[in-house]
């Protein structure tokens, strides 16, 4: 299990995170949702040791993350940041190969893994392309392939994918493809933690939801329990309606424009 225990973070006198505790279990998908400035990405950075905590601790499979060296951590968890800047004319294969750096596998084995993740992320037609020539969404898919290559090796120990707004530059097709691929990887004793802006995507793919507001976790739990009108309106300060999708039977959220005033409807929950 990957766990953040009562962590807080501040810049100067400004508190950014306050007493946040979150658990990521293997074979589960957890999504962090909340308004802009809620602290979602900062929480992810805190979990990956990118920012120095005021208090609290991070443990990975029962070990303090601060006690593990960077290579050992890189073999356990892979991070896909919101934006990645690469200034060299690398091919997509070379970018994906970066994910193999923490491992001591042979070049032949690395090539096999790179080929597999290219197929998994539907990047076959982009082989040989220079990374800088890709669109934002195509770069996101290459970055997903990179972190997949990083945690591809079989291991008796749980591994984790940490994704910061991975669908932000993707169209509908590739949003579902990326999140569906992440869920498929969970079968290999892997846990997924993702910051998502689209509440309906979060509800469709996540087993657990974490609602954040003003640097605090205001609600968290199984999606079927916490994906409610009350929790969404409290978190986002905006009126919504919960509807049932006639095709899938899933509950979806629809935001209400400020100029409209609708009669309240009976809240719908997951069956």
UniProtKB/TrEMBL annotation:
InterPro entries from the UniProt entry: AAA+_ATPase, ABC_transporter-like_ATP-bd, ABC_transporter-like_CS, P-loop_NTPase
Gene3D superfamilies: P-loop containing nucleotide triphosphate hydrolases
Protein name: ABC transporter domain-containing protein
Keywords: ATP-binding, Nucleotide-binding, Translocase, Transport
GO molecular function: ATP binding; ATP hydrolysis activity
Pfam assignment, any one: ABC_tran
Family annotation (SMART domains): AAA (SM00382)
Its job: Part of the ABC transporter complex HmuTUV involved in hemin import. Responsible for energy coupling to the transport system.
Domain ABC transporter: 2-239
Protein origin, superkingdom: Bacteria
């Amino acid at each position: 299990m990957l766990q953040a225990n009562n962590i807080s973070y501040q810049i100067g006198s400004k508190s950014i995170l306050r007493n946040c505790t979150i658990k990521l279990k293997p074979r589960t998908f957890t999504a962090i949702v909340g308004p802009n400035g809620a602290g979602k990405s900062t929480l992810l950075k805190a979990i990956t040791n990118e920012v120095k905590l005021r208090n609290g601790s991070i443990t990975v499979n029962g070990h303090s993350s601060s006690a593990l060296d960077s290579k050992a951590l890189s073999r356990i968890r892979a991070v896909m940041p919101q934006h990645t800047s690469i200034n060299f004319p690398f091919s997509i294969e070379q970018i994906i190969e970066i994910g193999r750096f923490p491992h001591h596998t042979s070049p032949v084995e690395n090539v096999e893994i790179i080929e597999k993740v290219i197929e998994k992320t539907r990047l076959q037609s982009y082989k040989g392309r220079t990374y800088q020539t890709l669109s934002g969404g195509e770069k996101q898919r290459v970055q997903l392939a990179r972190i997949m290559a990083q945690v591809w090796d079989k291991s008796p120990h749980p591994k984790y994918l940490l994704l910061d707004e991975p669908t932000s530059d993707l169209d509908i097709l590739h949003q579902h493809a990326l999140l569906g691929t992440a869920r498929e990887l969970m079968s290999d004793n892997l846990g997924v933690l993702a910051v998502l802006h689209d509440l309906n995507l979060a509800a469709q793919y996540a087993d657990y939801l974490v609602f954040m507001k003003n640097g605090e976790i205001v609600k968290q739990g199984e999606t079927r329990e916490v994906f409610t009108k009350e929790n969404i309106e409290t978190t986002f300060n905006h009126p919504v309606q919960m509807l049932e999708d006639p095709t899938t039977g899933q509950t979806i959220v629809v935001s209400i424009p400020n100029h409209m005033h609708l009669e309240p409807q009976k809240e719908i929950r997951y069956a």
